[in-house]
Amino acid sequence: MTGERGMAFWDLETLQLAEFRPGILSKAEIGKNLILAVMEIGPSKADTGHDHPFDQCGVVLGGRIEMFVGDEKRVLGEGEAYFLPAGVRHGWRTLDGPARILDVSLKPSG
Q1: Structural domains in the chain?
Q2: Whose C-alpha in 28, 39, 58, 93 is 20 to 30 A from the C-alpha of 13?
Q3: Other beta carbons less than 10 A from residue 30's beta carbon
Q4: How many CB atoms lie within 10 A of CB 98?
Q5: Are 44 and 38 in contact (CB under 8 A)?
Q6: How far apart are CA 28 and CA 87, in angstroms?
Q7: How far apart are alpha carbons 60 and 62 in whole angstroms?
Q8: Residue 97 in contact with residue 50, Cβ under 8 Å?
Q9: Are 79 and 101 in contact (CB under 8 A)?
Q10: Each residue of 42-59: pLDDT tens digit?
Q11: What is the mean pLDDT of residues 73-95?
């Protein structure tokens, strides 16, 4: 359920994810101002880079994912966090296994 009266609590171990894009499963809660999403990204998937006018942050829940933010690149594992400033080009790629992340971003206006 999403929207103003969406779920208040999630159990991350039993949360049911649905296909968001090929190779990416997701569950998102969209509030008035924020989007909370859990994503499981299959192995060898990539986002070559993009930027947007809002901040974004998250935590790796499982697996490993290589991320770049501007000129900085790092492989993140379980329990590591990322912060993506508004307007800065960023992207990611999964390695030989899936990665599961919890992501929070400001809801775009419009």
Answers
A1: 23-106 (2.60.120.10)
A2: 93
A3: 14
A4: 20
A5: no
A6: 23
A7: 6
A8: no
A9: no
A10: 999 999 999 999 999 999
A11: 97
Which residues have CB under 8 Å from 70's CB, separation 6+? 88, 89, 90
Structure tokens that stand for 71 in this block = 């000129």
Catalogue the E-assigned strands of the chain.
18-21, 24-30, 34-41, 46-50, 56-62, 64-69, 72-77, 81-84, 90-94, 99-106
Report the distance separating Cα 101 and Cα 63, nearest Å. 9
- CA-based angle 18:46:95, to the nearest 5? 95
* 7, amino acid identity: M
CA 53 – CA 62 distance, rounded (Å): 28
pLDDT-based confidence at residue 3 (cuts at 50, 70, 90) = very low
